[in-house]
Amino acid sequence: MSPEQILLLLLDLLGTFAFALNGALTAVRHVRIDIIGVLTLGMITALGGGILRDIMIDDLPPATFQDWRYLAVAAFGAFIVFIFAKHLGRMTVPIEVLDAVGLSVFAVTGASKALEFGLGPVQAVILGTLTGVGGGTIRDALVGRIPSVMSEGLYAIPAMVGAGLTVAAMMTDLYGIAAAVIAASTCWLIRIIGIRFKLNAPQPLGTFRRVGTQD
Description:
Elements: H1 3-30, H2 35-56, H3 63-66, H4 68-83, H5 85-88, H6 93-116, H7 121-142, H8 148-151, H9 153-171, H10 177-196
Helix pairs in contact: 1-2, 1-4, 1-6, 2-4, 2-6, 2-7, 6-7, 6-9, 6-10, 7-9, 9-10
């Protein structure tokens, strides 16, 4: 494997592990489910974004099903949460931090893989963003919450920034470990600042009524 491929794999596995922990923590905090439910939500959160990415670029079957390490890392992360659920279930900060880690890493790997498969820079940024928010969106839908990407302004935006920095680095032949870390760290920092200060992107002014409702 080339250094770039090794870097992509390591980042992918890191994002997979972080999102597995996040999905499983969400499961034990928001819904009362058994070990199968915890593992399922953790693994879907961890693998959903990568699967969507690979389907979009026609890399089939998705890397998740070509390399056993993805499934193993996702299952291991979710199982850790199941074992220590008593101590982790009430923690809010770890869920948000891990979500930010997964978002950041997947935004970078999604954008870099898109460029490697011949997509243009704009398409690569879009796919990087989709990879970052995909797992969290599926997670939120499964636990009955409005997806963060639709309700929190600083969720998709950090992913777009991370993906954009990745694309810029690759287009200028500056991509490597340092560039990937900078791109992911920038995405993570923006997301954490948004959480800390409850920041959102501009929202529509005024109140909108549903069609057919009465005053």
